[in-house]
């Protein structure tokens, strides 16, 4: 199965992938994580990408494709893509890669959230520095200051500041939002309301996939 998770920054893509990948036996390919890893390791691609990420604007397509194309091509078990595609060029490129292998996207899940929710979620989001688990007011608890899964400390992403958040929303609306129509026309879009609890969202996606498989 080949899935794409679509949605504004902070829509809950990362949280849902963490919950879905094990249940569906799929590999998670996250463009943002791969880019941040490249930045941290100071690779050439990472150095080129760093400033764009900090400002909340898109990294150039060639950098992203260089990081992702082989991963997508070589993933045989099936994948959930998160953060890619982020514009029409990338969406068409993804179709091309899959077409060339006689594969296709099965479903694009679009998480819909209000702008006020996005700003609120991102400005207080913490990420585990080791396993990448995402924490927020709801799942942090009053006293924990380290990751419940692996014990490592939290950090706040460089681009989770008000200025970069505003820019990321603008970038999303301009470049990524049009993909909703692109996939709607292909009849592989599943819209889900992202304001619900993570548990409810996961369950609805799984129910939908179950129904789809039986059709
Ligand atoms: P979020 O969805 O929370 O904004 P991500 O972790 O997916 O964050 O991405 C962080 C940043 O990495 C983006 O703001 C952008 O600068 C860059 N980026 C991630 N994926 C892509 C992509 N497919 N194309 C271009 N830039 C990307």
Would you write up a description of this structure?
- The chain is α/β, with parallel strands linked by helices and 215 residues long.
- The protein has a domain at 2-26 and 77-127 and 167-214: Rossmann fold (3-Layer(aba) Sandwich).
- The protein has ten helices and eight strands.
- The strands form two sheets. Strands 2-3-1-4-8 form a five-stranded parallel β-sheet, sandwiched between helices. Strands 6-5-7 form a three-stranded antiparallel β-sheet.
- Strand 5 (126-128) and strand 6 (134-135) form a beta hairpin.
- The longest helix is centred in the C-terminal third of the chain and has 17 residues, at 198-214.
- The radius of gyration is 17 Å and the shape is globular.
- The mean pLDDT is 91.
- It binds adenosine-5'-diphosphate (ADP).
- Adenosine-5'-diphosphate is lined by residues 9-10, 31-32, 35, 52-53, 56-59, 64, 83-84, 86, 90, 159, 168.
């Amino acid at each position: 199965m080949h899935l794409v998770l679509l949605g504004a920054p902070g829509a809950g893509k990362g949280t849902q992938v963490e919950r879905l990948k094990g249940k569906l036996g799929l590999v998670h390919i996250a463009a943002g994580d791969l880019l941040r890893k490249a930045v941290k390791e100071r690779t050439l691609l990472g150095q080129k990408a760093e400033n764009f990420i900090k400002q909340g604007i898109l990294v150039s397509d060639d950098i992203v494709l260089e990081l992702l194309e082989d991963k997508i091509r070589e993933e045989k078990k099936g994948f959930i893509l998160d953060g890619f595609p982020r514009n029409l060029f990338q969406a068409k490129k993804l179709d091309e890669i899959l077409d060339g292998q006689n594969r296709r996207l099965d479903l694009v899940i679009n998480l819909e959230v209000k702008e006020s929710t996005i700003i609120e979620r991102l400005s207080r989001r913490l990420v585990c520095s080791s396993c990448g688990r995402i924490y927020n007011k709801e799942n942090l608890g009053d006293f924990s200051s380290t990751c419940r899964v692996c014990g490592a400390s939290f950090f706040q992403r460089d681009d989770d500041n008000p200025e970069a958040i505003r820019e990321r929303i603008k970038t999303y609306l301009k470049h990524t939002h049009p993909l909703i129509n692109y996939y709607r026309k292909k009849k592989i879009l599943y819209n889900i309301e992202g304001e619900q609890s993570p548990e409810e969202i996961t369950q609805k996606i799984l129910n939908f996939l179950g129904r789809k498989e039986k059709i």
